[in-house]
Design a protein that fits this description.
Blueprint (H helix, E strand, L loop, with lengths): L1 E4 L5 H9 L3 E4 L10 H10 L3 E4 L2 H8 L7 E3 L6 H20 L3 E3 L1
Parallel strand pairs: 1-2, 1-3, 3-4, 4-5
Helix pairs in contact: 1-4
Length: about 110
């Protein structure tokens, strides 16, 4: 699967997904850090990449009534290991069909 990591997602999470041979792009490598969230969502849609973010409030409201490739809201936990485990469980249980076009929480 193809993922776009928002700037607020811990970089260590990327390594786990890359090890599983997912295509991961860091937002900071393709857009300016000052890019509005609406443009970030547009970029994800244009590149058919599921957006992974910790920015729940902004992206939930932006996704209402507009097409998007899928959004995963990564919930902050006590440590990064728990965050990565939750994300991997979600990806495994939902599969690509459960992620594309939907909003999921990990």
């Amino acid at each position: 699967m193809k993922f776009l990591f928002d700037n607020d997602v811990p970089d260590s999470t990327r390594y786990v997904l890359e090890e599983l041979e997912h295509d991961v792009t860091l937002l900071l490598n393709v857009l300016e850090t000052t890019t509005p969230d609406s443009d970030v969502l547009d970029h994800a849609r244009e590149n058919e990449a599921i957006l992974i973010t910790c920015n729940r409030d902004d992206f939930l409201s932006l996704a209402e009534g507009r097409p998007h490739p899928g959004i995963i809201i990564l919930i902050r936990r006590k440590n990064r290991v728990l965050e990565r485990a939750a994300l991997l469980r979600l990806i495994e249980s939902a599969g690509e069909s459960g992620l594309i076009g939907n909003i999921n929480f990990a």
